[in-house]
């Protein structure tokens, strides 16, 4: 009797062990999966701009091969000394010298004696992006800036492969937005310049702006900017 009882108890222990082991393995597997999903979510939440730029640089289409545009970016801005300094030294300098874009600026690239109206329309039509530097003085500049903005909005509406980018150089009160700017603000993303915080090429401002600009495949400088992302990938592989 005792032997039969011991044998039954042994069989029961073996049965429980055979049932519990897969449950433990399943629980561990689910736990590891949840940790990996949480880690990937955190990485994406923190580095989504870098991931998007990396994806675009690898798989995006270079628009220079699909259209006949002459310029990558036409910059529209208020003609005053402060904003001219920002446009010519900061925006133009980085876009042309660091990122390799072709930039059109009316006051620099137009020929003397030409028609302001037709020259502006021609420049905007020959550009892939219209970059509008939004500031309190933008709407007060009158015909030139509003002509540039209207030409860009009309170009988008007609499907002419032109996109408008709004860069807020200084905050603008709600009543200071003219009708054309209000229309553009509803449909377009606004990239905010934050002074010294935005000066570095690795700042959020330049990353956001590059997402809106035409695709450029990775150069040596661009690859350096993705070192942080590669370090994360290596850590994930070794962990």
Looking at this structure, what is the CATH superfamily of one domain? Toll/interleukin-1 receptor homology (TIR) domain
Largest sheet: 5 strands, parallel
Strand tally is 5
Output the CATH topology of one domain: Rossmann fold
CATH class of one domain: Alpha Beta
Order of helices and strands: HEHEHHEHEHEHHH
The shape, in one word, is elongated
CATH architecture name of one domain: 3-Layer(aba) Sandwich
Q: What distance separates the N and C termini?
A: 54 Å
Put simply, the count of helices is 9
Major beta sheet, strand line-up: 2-1-3-4-5
Low confidence ranges: 2-6, 12-16, 220-230
- Briefly note the structural class of the backbone: alpha/beta
- Mean pLDDT across residues: 76
The portion of residues assigned to helices is 55-70%
- Radius of gyration, taken over Cα atoms and rounded to an integer in Å: 28 Å
How much of the polypeptide forms β-strand, as a percent range?
5-15%
Question: What does it look like?
Answer:
InterPro entries: IL-1_rcpt_fam, TIR_dom, Toll_tir_struct_dom_sf. This is TIR domain-containing protein. Pfam families: TIR (PF01582). Keywords: Disulfide bond, Glycoprotein, Immunoglobulin domain, Membrane, Transmembrane, Transmembrane helix. Helices cover 59% and strands 10% of the residues. 21% of the residues are buried. The protein has a domain at 63-214: Rossmann fold, CATH 3.40.50. It has a five-stranded parallel sheet with strand order 2-1-3-4-5, with helices on both faces. With 239 residues, it is α/β, with parallel strands linked by helices. It starts with a helix and ends with a helix.
């Amino acid at each position: 009797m005792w032997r039969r009882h011991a044998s039954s108890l042994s069989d029961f222990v073996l049965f429980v062990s055979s049932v519990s082991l897969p449950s433990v393995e399943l629980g561990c597997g689910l736990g590891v999966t949840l940790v990996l999903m949480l880690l990937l979510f955190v990485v994406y939440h923190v580095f989504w701009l870098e991931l998007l730029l990396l994806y675009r640089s690898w798989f995006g289409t270079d628009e220079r091969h699909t259209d006949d545009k002459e310029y990558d970016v036409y910059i529209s801005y208020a003609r005053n000394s402060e904003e001219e300094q920002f446009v010519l030294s900061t925006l133009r300098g980085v876009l042309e010298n660091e990122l390799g874009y072709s930039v059109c600026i009316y006051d620099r690239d137009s020929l003397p004696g030409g028609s302001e109206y037709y020259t502006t329309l021609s420049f905007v039509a020959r550009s892939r992006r219209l970059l509008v530097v939004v500031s309190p003085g933008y709407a007060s500049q009158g015909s030139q800036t509003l002509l540039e903005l209207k030409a860009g909005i009309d170009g988008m509406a007609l499907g002419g492969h032109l996109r408008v980018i709004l860069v807020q150089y200084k905050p603008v009160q709600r009543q200071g937005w003219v009708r054309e700017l209000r229309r553009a603000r509803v449909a377009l993303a606004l990239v905010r310049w934050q002074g010294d915080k935005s000066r570095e090429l690795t700042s959020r401002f330049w990353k956001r702006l590059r997402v809106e600009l035409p695709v450029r495949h990775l150069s040596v400088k661009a690859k350096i900017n993705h070192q942080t992302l590669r370090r994360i990938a290596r850590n994930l592989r070794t962990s």
